[in-house]
Amino acid sequence: MSRFCLPRDIYHGKGCLEELKNLKGKKACLVVGGGSMKRQGFLDRAVNYLKEGGMEVRLIEGVEPDPSVETVMKGAEVMREFEPDWIVAMGGGSPIDAAKAMWVFYEYPEVSFEDIITPFSFPELRQKAKFAAIPSTSGTATEVTAFSVITNYQTGVKYPLADFNITPDVAIVDPDLVSGLPVKQVAYTGMDALTHAIEGYTTKAAWEMTDMFHLKAIEIISRSLRGAVANTKEGRKGMALGQYIAGMGFSNVGLGIAHSMAHTLGAVYDTPHGVACAMMLPIVMEYNADCTGEKYREIARAMGVEGVDQMDQETYRKAAVDAVRRLSEDVGIPAKLEALKEEDHPFLAESAHADACAPGNPKDASVEDLTALFRKLM
């Protein structure tokens, strides 16, 4: 049996932030990150729209990149005091992911972080509040997914939390919010989105419905990312669309070891997630190639490689991997990680092996396999 879960409502298009005024409720907690939404005026607009809709608003500001367990717990405490019936998260993946986790501890104060580490173990949400997500980056797709990544800095582990309960009720994807995103962030988040699409397409749980989303996402991202990095209007508009199409797919089937390995690189070396994904994706694609059937032919085709129908298996597999490498290089992401230390390989491999994304990989990977893959980054 397969399950397919999406937000109840997805609003997409220039100016759709205004849909906030149509949310029905009395109180909203608005969760944001480091200040870019405030500097660009979007935070004030969001607050005003919520107030126009008749809501009292409380801000939870300053969610850090790679949000911590401590940040989540502090935010949940604010929510318990304020008692919102809407949680609205606005910004990059970090504030939206943090707000998803805050939601759990707002509704269930007795639950511990350890209780929700196991995928699909969350208590039933929406007992007190509903959730709206508004992304300001084009990459994580957390506004449409059942995932949240939270870091425990005491253990040095990034935990990908997974449960359909935390799929937002409403996603508002307004391309205006990504217009001021710095070029590096466009590149990083864009390669994260491509990794979502390719890993979702090849994961063990993939099926016809999700394949449809992932192939279209690969096509849109491949033709849009270079333009988005060059700050063209069409490029940024395309990435805003492609990244959440990928999210709608992978949220329902999971990911693979490129994400598992990226999570642990981020936790240990503070490597930006999209950079880690971009570095790992072609290496992992080479590892997985013999377990993917004809799918690399379709990936190469979606990425604009010509003549794939005339290619033999070895050639189209190489073409797909090379297309990913070229795109990553074209948007300025290095292929190697200089910070990587060989003495860290055992911890990195063990952490990646235990990561919640690892079981979905099309080819099972042992700790020894993962160690060998990390070595290719040096």
State the main characteristics:
single chain; 378 residues; alpha/beta; 13 helices; 48% helix
Helix content: 40-55%
Let me know the number of strands. 8
Q: Detail the poorly predicted runs.
A: none
Q: Spell out the helices and strands N to C.
A: EEHHEHEHEEEEHHHHHHHHH
Q: What do these coordinates show?
A:
This protein has 378 residues and is of the alpha/beta class. Helices cover 48% and strands 11% of the residues. It has helices spanning 36-39, 42-52, 69-82, 93-107, 183-202, 208-229, 233-253, 257-269, 273-288, 295-302, 313-330, 345-354, 367-375; strands spanning 9-12, 27-31, 56-60, 86-91, 130-135, 147-152, 157-162, 170-173. Helix 6 packs parallel to helix 10 (295-302). It is globular and about 60 Å long. The model has no long low-confidence stretch (mean pLDDT 95).
Topology:
Blueprint: E1 9-12, E2 27-31, H1 36-39, H2 42-52, E3 56-60, H3 69-82, E4 86-91, H4 93-107, E5 130-135, E6 147-152, E7 157-162, E8 170-173, H5 183-202, H6 208-229, H7 233-253, H8 257-269, H9 273-288, H10 295-302, H11 313-330, H12 345-354, H13 367-375
Parallel strand pairs: 1-8, 2-3, 2-4, 4-5, 5-8
Antiparallel strand pairs: 6-7
Helix pairs in contact: 3-4, 5-6, 5-7, 5-9, 6-7, 6-10, 8-9, 8-12, 9-11, 10-11, 12-13
Write a compact overview of the structure shown.
This protein is α/β, with parallel strands linked by helices. The protein has 13 helices and 8 strands. α5 (183-202) runs parallel beside α9 and α8 crosses α12 (345-354).
